[in-house]
Amino acid sequence: MTFIRLLRWELFKLYRRPSSYIGFVLCLLFCAATLFGFGWAQYKGREVQGLKLDPSVYLNGPFYANFVLNIAFFALLPLVVATVAGSQLAGEAKDGTLRALLVRPPSRTALYLAKAVASLLWIELTIVFLVALALLVGHIAYGGGDLLVYIWEYKSAGFWSVDAADWPAVFALAALGAGVALALVAAVALLLSAITDNPVVAHVGTLGGFFISSVLQRLPDQLMGPGFKELLPTTHMNFWHEVYRWADPAGDGVNRGRLLEDLAWCGGLSVACFAGGLWVFTRRDVTS
Amino acid sequence: MSGSVVLATHDLCKRYRQRTVVDRVSITVERGDVYGFLGPNGAGKSTTLRMLLGLVRPTAGRIELLGRPAGDRRALARIGAIVEGPALYGYLSGRDNLRMLSDLSGGAPAARLDEVLDRVDLRDRAADLVRIYSHGMKQRLAIAAALLPRPELIILDEPTNGLDPMGIRDMRALVRSLAGDDGITVLLSSHLLAEVEQVCNRGAIIARGARLWEGEVAELLAGRRRVRLRARPIEAARAVAASLGVEAREVEPGLLHVGRDGAHGEVTPAALVARLAAAGVEVDEIADEAPTLEEVFVSLVEQAA
């Protein structure tokens, strides 16, 4: 009962706090910038990986939406997630409102869990908004059709196409998976937010970790061995890319072993970070 | 005062690495007290209050708060507290702040919200966002939030900080009314001694983390009553005081503060006048007076240093 009450108020605070809407504004800007960039590119018949691609065929609504989701997952959504989750405890500590909450009966554990769940719900709402916006804008600008897929990890497989009848399910699953993967970023941000009284430290620390891991993950194997890359969180955060392989007619299908391993890594790290944050928060002195 | 203990600390300590912030502080607040917790800035007052409320973990010592350990959820439900100034959500209205904080303390009907808003004279502004409130209004709203659960004990940390003279006067009146009209025990931390002297019946003084004194404020001042004496020649007056075994301190040229506790018992102004006259000292002014709390406080802190 206490938890539900706390969760309701945490969501209410997110709803009323102007800074909570930065993510939505960034999603709008990102969609607009991508649309503008596509228009600017003046696509002509272009050869990519031996395939002659005709933009009039592949540049459609599904492609645009999928492109937005994949790039936002790497570039935009971690920023939004780090900002929302990183502000939860450190932001309140900085403003002094954390002590107003902690001198009241609800336990620190209940408060932490309410903040974690509220952050995750808000983050999922932002992702749904981004996906819905991208689909809408893509459909209006480019219309429907098949979805052309290119995944960096499976670059050796080249491009493949998902039928118009199948891509909504694939895309929905991919968006859901991306949302689940971003829980790890939220967990790291919440952990840092429990440690520090300065939300900027939580934001920058989370984003710094995410981008360093992402960059190292993408370095050539000659520079950064595959064994090391397996230890990087971002390597496992892309598990949701596997869902595209369900619809790859020429591919080997989903690598279930890989999918489960990545899910276990990602889930395990997320739970560990959430639990670490809770451990710190329930023991730390509140001196702000 | 019923005499039942509402709050007690026993040898409370807080250390951050090698630095001792609170050093074996023991205080007792009884039901009905308006208890002044005094100390200079950095004395350890806020850290002690934070330990009482479970915000900071003591390194050693014991706390009993309404019969329960520090930070106990059931005890916190019966306490109202403001620690280091009002902590409110600027992007919410005054009423929404109260609704939220009330809900976290178990909830209160809308009528109770109106009642506490009336009490702090903020009902007309309850719909405004808190970020446009003045500091005094925020302080009053924080008090309203602390009053919501009908607390048995209210802890106010430097409640007059940042207030203008009118705000300070209103705050004093409010504290008096909390104790007098509502029967709430008040623990008030402050470095403003006039404030404590005017509203508190009991208190403690801490400096550098250690307790220097605890007891009735009136007794503290009465026990240090003195004779204010203007006399000529001043050296002869001093000699008379010395012959009676009392301390005489020249606080300004020609003015002595003469202690009342002599080597052979209490020295009254009348007895002093008689001895001065016998010694041929001319008395221009003599009066029995109590020191201000500020003087006692400074003297205790200086002794401790």
Describe the main β-sheet of chain A briefly: 2 strands, antiparallel
| Helical/strand content category of chain B | alpha/beta
**Number of DSSP E strands of chain A:** 4
Strand order of the largest sheet of chain B: 6-7-8-4-9-10
**Helix/strand order of chain B, N-terminal first:** EEEEHEHEHHHEHEHEEHEHEEEEHEH
Helix content of chain B: 25-40%
Instruction: State the total count of DSSP E strands of chain B.
Output: 16
Structurally, the number of domains of chain A stands at 1
**Cα gyration radius of chain A (Å):** 20 Å
Q: Main interface pair?
A: A-B, 25 and 31 residues
Mean pLDDT of chain A: 89
Write down the secondary-structure element order of chain A.
HHEEHHHHHEEHHHHH
Q: How large a portion of the residues of chain B is in β-strands, by DSSP E?
A: 25-35%
> What count of helical segments of chain B does DSSP give?
11
Largest pleated sheet of chain B: 6 strands, mixed
Relative strand content of chain A: under 5%
Distance, first to last CA of chain B: 34 Å
Low-pLDDT sequence parts of chain B: none
Please state the overall shape of chain B, judged from the principal axes of the Cα atoms: elongated
Oligomerization state: heterodimer
SS field, number of helical segments of chain A: 12
Descriptive account of the structure:
The complex is a heterodimer of chains A (288) and B (305). In chain A, 69% of the residues lie in helices and 4% in strands. Chain A is mostly helical and 288 residues long. Chain A has one domain. Chain A has a two-stranded antiparallel sheet. The mean pLDDT of chain A is 89. Chain B is an alpha/beta fold and 305 residues long. Helix content of chain B is 35%, strand content 30%. In chain B, strands 6-7-8-4-9-10 form a six-stranded mixed β-sheet, sandwiched between helices. In chain B, strands 1, 2, 3 and 5 form a four-stranded antiparallel β-sheet that branches. In chain B, strands 12-13-11-16 form a four-stranded antiparallel β-sheet, with helices on one face. Chain B is elongated and about 75 Å long. The mean pLDDT of chain B is 88. The chains are: A mainly alpha (288), B alpha/beta (305). At the A-B interface, α1 and α6 of A face α2 and α3 of B.
